[in-house]
Amino acid sequence: MNMVTPKKINLSSENYAGVHDKMMSALAAANTDNVPSYGNDHYTQSAIAVFKEHFGENIEVYFTFNGTGANNFGIGSVTGKHNSVFCTEVAHLNVDESTAPEAFTGCRIFPVKSSDGKIILADLKNKLKRIGDVHHPQPKVVTITQPTEYGTVYTLDELKALKQICTENNLLLHVDGARFFNAAVHLNTSLKQLSAEAGVDILTLGGTKGGMMFGEAVIFFNCPVPNANKFMLKRSMQLASKNRFIAAQFTAMLQDELWKEIANHTNVLAAMLEKELSKIPSFEIAYPVETNAVFVKMPKHIFDELQKIATFYHWNEERNEYRFMLSFNSTADEVTRFVEQVKLLAGG
C-alpha cells in the first residue's frame, strides 16, 4: 500500500502560497474577450477608479510585474543618477534586491541604523551630509518598508516625524509596501490614512504576497507633471502588454475589503503562533508581533527536526533568528499542529 507523505506546512513565505480563489476568478473573468493592450483597457481603468476610492483622487497608479521592478520604477522616476537613497540596513532594497536599485537608478544607497526594523531618525539626520557638494551624491529619497522586514509597523506619529525630516531636507518619502495591507489592519486605519494623509509621496503596493498570482502597483501622490511617469514605466521594462490581468486582480483585492479580510486572517494567525511559542522556555520572541510575521530565537536542533513537517527560514544565523510567515491559505489547524510538534521537540 502506498503511503501518502503529509504536506509540509508553509511558514516560509506568501510567495510559496498559491492564488486566492477570488484572484483566480478575476483572472478568468478578464480572459473572456479581446481588449486593447498596455493598459488601454476597461479593466485597467476600472482598477484605477477603485484605487482612487481607497487612496484619494490626486494619485497616479501604474502596474508592474514584481516588487523589485516596482521599487526601481517608483524610486527611479523621481531621482537622477547623482542622487542618494536612504533606507535601513535591513531593508529589502538593501539586502535582497541585489544590485538592481543601483544599476537601474544609478543612485548611491545609504544604509541607516534601525530598531526593530524601523529607521532611527537620529542616524538618518547624521547621514544627511554635504548637501550642495558636487563631490557627494545628493539626498533625494528616504524609503521605508511598511510593515518592516521584521513585521513591525510604523505608527502614524512615527510616519509624521519621519515626514517632517523629509520635508525639512527636501526629500521624498517612498514606502515599500509589499505587505502594506497587514500594516493598515494592525493600525486599524484606512489605506488613505496610512499613505496620502501620512505624507507618503510614492507607495509600492504589494499584490503577490496578498494572494495574487503576480503583480504590484506603484502609486504616486501629488504628481507635479501629470502622466510623466508612464515613460519611466516603459524604460523600467515593467509595462505589461496584457495589463488587464494585473489590474483585474487588484480590483478584486480592493473591492468588498478583501484586502482587509486576508490581512486580518494572517495577522490573527501570527498572534496565535506567537502566543503559543512564547510559552516554550527555550524559545524567545525576537521582535514585537504586529502583522503576519513571527521571529524567534530557538535551538538549532529543533529547527533541523521541524524541517520534516514545515518550511521556514533560518533568517539570521549570527543572531540565531528564525522567521515564520503566515499566508492567506494558512489555517489555525496548521498552527496548532506545528506548535504541538514544537512542544514535543522542546520537551513539553
Describe the structure concisely for a colleague.
With 348 residues, this protein is an alpha/beta fold. Helices cover 37% and strands 19% of the residues. The chain folds into 2 domains: 9-16 and 258-345, Aspartate Aminotransferase, domain 1; 21-256, Aspartate Aminotransferase, domain 2 (3-Layer(aba) Sandwich).
Task: Please write out the topology.
Blueprint: E1 9-10, H1 21-29, H2 42-55, E2 59-64, H3 67-76, E3 83-88, H4 92-95, H5 100-105, E4 108-112, E5 114-115, E6 118-119, H6 121-127, E7 138-145, H7 156-168, E8 172-177, H8 180-187, E9 202-206, E10 216-221, H9 229-235, H10 244-254, H11 258-277, E11 284-285, E12 293-297, H12 300-306, E13 310-311, E14 313-316, E15 321-325, H13 332-345
Parallel strand pairs: 1-13, 3-4, 3-7, 7-8, 8-9
Antiparallel strand pairs: 2-10, 5-6, 9-10, 11-12, 12-15, 14-15
Which features would summarize this protein structure in a list?
348 residues, alpha/beta, Aspartate Aminotransferase, domain 1, 2 domains, four-stranded antiparallel sheet, 19% strand, globular
Overview of this structure, please?
This protein has 348 residues and is an alpha/beta fold. It folds into 2 domains: 9-16 and 258-345, Aspartate Aminotransferase, domain 1 (Alpha-Beta Complex); 21-256, Aspartate Aminotransferase, domain 2 (3-Layer(aba) Sandwich), CATH 3.40.640.10. The protein is 37% helix and 19% strand. The chain is built from 13 helices and 15 strands. A 7-stranded mixed sheet has the order 2-10-9-8-7-3-4, sandwiched between helices. A 4-stranded antiparallel sheet has the order 11-12-15-14. A two-stranded parallel sheet has the order 1-13. Strand 5 and strand 6 (118-119) form a beta hairpin. The two termini are 34 Å apart. The mean pLDDT is 95.
